[in-house]
Design a protein that fits this description.
2 copies of one chain form a homodimer. Chain A is of the alpha+beta class. Chain A has 2 domains: 147 residues, PurM-like, N-terminal domain (60s Ribosomal Protein L30, Chain: A); 158 residues, Phosphoribosyl-aminoimidazole Synthetase, Chain A, domain 2 (Alpha-Beta Complex). In chain A, the strands form 3 sheets. A 6-stranded mixed β-sheet of chain A has the order 8-10-7-11-9-12, sandwiched between helices. In chain A, strand 1 and strand 2 form a beta hairpin. The longest helix of chain A is centred in the N-terminal third of the chain and has 19 residues. Chain A is globular and about 65 Å long. The two termini of chain A are 34 Å apart. Strand 2 of chain A pairs antiparallel with strand 3 of chain B.
Chain lengths: 336, 336
């Protein structure tokens, strides 16, 4: 019996039972997988946060470059990143999965293993889903729910003139890996995970919300420039960024020296899943302390103003003109 | 400029703004489309209900047989039906949409028109989503959130021995339409909507929960037999159904006279989105009153017992053996 046949024998309901058996109980989930809906409680001092993402083979990922376990973990992380970007705590995930008949039960088990372990890492549980066969590509839909103390969630619209702009970690590493893969080069091994399995910055997001340190926040999925522009548009403000302060890993800096223009990947490509936030200068000291506590760099890269544009300045004060490498699903080709 | 070009010009962010402009405010939604997450309140005496569905071209629908406005409405209705099946009130929807480049802006507008009007019909709002290009089929992912008074949601697991089994409306109409389409016949026009745009029985579900009338409930998506078996398995009970009491429309009855065996479509095909529930005999009078109030037939089709199987009896008491026409996504071919 081939593995595909084993999956066929397992059937849709058998698959649901298999997944069900892998999930731990949660204090917030009265009823999880196996009924028409999950039943969940939300604290009376809490608000519910929800976000949904689609990941499609050939558009968002390439099965030649990623393994199924990584793909499972990435599917969770990029979705949970939206909860982090509001300063919330992830609670539950819902997985829609359309699996092509060309893939095996082993692939499915690896994928689910990645999904379940990463969901657990973030303190959440798989609470529901829908499975079917795909006649085309592998299709993954993930919806995440989380909670924030009432009124504490950090929106895109709160940036104030004079706010400093911060970003966590380093930018462009995921883009650099993909750039190598697309050029049939071996990507830098120390950066590979940044692309194949990024981390959602949940602890940072929640700490910023708890301490009331950030006025506006977003996670960098579309690229620093596009995502900062989302904040500026929602807040009706402008900003100036300092090119030399954009945080880059040692490997990325090395690559920039070998090939000019690569810096634009860090500015416009996206898929970094770092948090970009604005904060009053009065919060600077606490942000430094938080950075030390979390052992995560929080770089000051610019400031918000009353204008309506985004300018990126070089060290000598000259305006930097980047080339757009960002991604608009309806205007450009697939990333991978 | 072709319509495809217009959609390309609109871009992903333009599309999101277009959708945003079509959505009315909701008292439960503090922040809707346009940030990393929606922000929602859930009453302190309420529990949150959530369900997710994937609909994929070639698996769940065929664009030769449905128009985009119907498809939009159906995508909402089949998902909201899961909230109805718990006795809840739908509040918000999240739409994941991967749109093939071969489809036009007009198609997209028709689809969104259907989604938005149906969401409004059910008293809910579109609160978030994700859009991208599909390199393969049209892919629709819908997640719905609703609320039920704490402890009132009706699960699959509550069926009691002696409970009467009820089903709303008529069964098999959707299957009959599809049967005609698959055989290149003109489907009965009075049944077409049952297939292309079924109704979620939200009022019935909520009333049963409010009045505490049902012990177990499910919506019929996989077929009467499969869905009753879900209740029986979750409740660890058995049941007997009376074949002659299965509610059939006049058109379906006529078709049964012309072609023997069609009754199995009503038993095993699914996509009826009627509610199947079990209730104590003591609730019979109130259920009759509710049926009259809602102008919706509620047929008594059998009873729950302490056994562990499901038997369907003919008028003469003989066991009826049906042929399985139901749908298991991992064990059979696509319905359409």
């Amino acid at each position: 019996m081939t593995e595909n046949n084993r999956l066929t024998t397992l059937g849709e309901f058998g698959l649901i039972e298999y997944i069900q058996s892998q999930v731990d109980p949660s204090p917030f989930l009265r009823l999880g997988i196996g009924d028409d809906c999950s039943i969940q409680t939300v604290g009376s001092d809490e608000e519910l946060l929800t976000s949904t993402d689609l990941l499609i083979e050939g558009v968002h990922f390439n099965l030649d470059w990623t393994n199924f376990e990584q793909l499972g973990r990435k599917s969770v992380a990029v979705n949970v990143s939206d909860i982090a970007a509001m300063g919330g705590t992830p609670r539950s995930l819902y997985l829609g999965l359309a699996f092509p008949a060309t893939l095996s039960l082993e692939h499915l088990e690896q994928f689910l293993g990645g999904v379940l372990s990463k969901t657990k890492d973030y303190g959440a549980v798989l609470a529901g889903g829908d499975t079917c066969r795909s006649t085309g590509p592998l299709i993954i839909s993930v919806t995440v729910q989380g909670a924030a103390k009432s009124g504490q969630a950090i929106c895109r619209s709160g940036a104030q003139p004079g706010d400093l702009i911060y970003v966590s970690g380093t930018l462009g590493d995921s883009a650099l890996v993909l750039h190598s893969l697309q050029n049939n080069e071996q990507p830098a091994s120390e950066l590979a995970e940044r692309h194949h399995c990024p981390e959602a910055r949940t602890e940072l997001g929640r700490s910023l919300a708890d301490q009331g340190l950030a006025n506006a926040m977003i996670d960098i999925s579309d690229g620093l420039v596009a995502d900062l522009n989302h904040i500026l548009k929602a807040s009706d403000k402008g900003a100036v960024l300092s090119l030399e302060h954009i945080p880059l890993s040692a490997t990325f800096q090395q690559a920039c020296q070998e090939q000019s223009g690569l810096i634009d990947l860090a500015l416009t490509w996206g898929e970094d899943y770092e948090l970009l936030f604005t904060a009053s200068p009065a919060a600077e000291k606490e942000i430094v302390l938080l950075s030390e506590k979390l052992k995560l760099s929080l770089s000051k890269i610019g400031s918000v103003n009353d204008g309506n544009g985004l300018n990126i300045l070089q060290k000598d004060g000259a305006l930097y003109q980047y080339r757009q490498a960002g991604f608009d699903h309806f205007a450009s080709e697939a990333k991978e």
